[in-house]
Design goal:
This protein is of the alpha/beta class and 210 residues long. It is 38% helix and 16% strand. The protein has a 6-stranded parallel β-sheet, sandwiched between helices. Helix 4 packs across helix 5. The longest helix is centred in the C-terminal third of the chain and has 15 residues.
Length: 210
C-alpha cells in the first residue's frame, strides 16, 4: 500500500493516537489511517476487534493467525511507533484516563460498537478507550460503515454527535477526480485527519488547494 505525500508541522511532533478497527466492512480505511499516522512519525495504539480481524482476513487477505507478526510486516518499517492491544485487554494503558493520548479514531466503526459507546457500555478495550476519550474531553472520531441505516443507528449517531463525538461516515467524494480505490480511501482518511487538525496532502481540495 502506498501512502500519499503528507505534511508534518513542528507542532504535530510526538502526538499519540488510538486507532480502532471493528468488524464493519472497510478495514482498508483503518489500515491506511494507521499507515499515514506512522508515516508522520506519530505513536499509534492499535485495537482490532475479533470481528475486525476476520474482516481484515477476508478483505485484505492478511494471514491473521499471528496477529503481532502481520502488524509488524505491514507497519514496522514506518518512522512512527505503534503498540498493539488485544481487544480483551481491559487493563491496557489506554483504558485509563491518566494515560495521555491526543485522540481516538474508530475506522471503520460497526453499528454494534457505536451502540455500545452511545450507551456507555465499556465491555471491552475498544469501547472503554472510547469512553475514556469522552470523559476526558479528548477527540473521538467514529467512521460508521453501514447501509441502509435504521432509526436506532441514526439515534445513536445523533446522541454521540450531541456529546461532541465527530461522525465521519464512509462516504467518499468524487469532485477531486479519483482514479483508483486508493484515491477514495485516501480521501476519507484525509477527512479524518482534517477533523483532528493534522496537515496532509492526501487529496486535492475544492478550488485546487493541496
Amino acid at each position: 500500500m502506498t501512502t500519499n505525500s503528507t505534511t508534518l508541522t513542528s507542532s504535530d511532533v510526538n502526538k499519540t493516537y488510538v486507532v480502532g478497527i471493528t468488524g464493519a466492512s472497510g478495514s482498508i480505511y483503518g489500515v491506511k489511517l494507521i499507515e499515514v499516522l506512522l508515516s508522520l512519525g506519530f505513536t499509534v495504539h492499535i485495537i482490532i476487534s475479533n470481528a475486525g480481524w476476520r474482516v481484515i482476513k477476508e478483505e485484505l487477505h492478511w494471514q491473521t493467525s499471528d496477529r503481532e507478526a502481520v502488524l509488524a510486516e505491514n507497519f514496522s518499517n514506518l518512522p512512527g511507533s505503534y503498540q498493539y492491544h488485544p481487544v480483551a485487554d481491559i487493563g491496557a494503558s489506554i483504558a485509563s484516563g491518566s494515560f495521555r493520548v491526543d485522540g481516538m479514531i474508530i475506522m471503520p466503526c460497526s453499528m454494534g460498537t457505536l451502540s455500545s459507546i452511545a450507551q456507555g457500555a465499556s465491555e471491552n478495550l475498544m469501547t472503554r478507550a472510547a469512553d475514556v476519550m469522552m470523559k476526558e474531553g479528548r477527540a473521538l472520531v467514529l467512521v460508521p460503515r453501514e447501509t441502509p441505516l435504521h432509526a436506532i443507528h441514526l439515534e445513536n449517531m445523533l446522541k454521540l454527535s450531541r456529546l461532541g463525538v465527530k461522525m465521519i461516515p464512509a462516504m467518499p467524494a468524487f469532485y477531486f477526480g479519483p482514479k483508483t480505490i486508493d484515491d477514495l480511501v485516501a480521501f476519507l482518511v484525509g477527512k479524518v485527519l482534517d477533523s483532528i487538525h493534522i496537515d496532509h496532502s492526501l487529496f486535492t481540495r475544492w478550488g485546487g488547494q493541496p
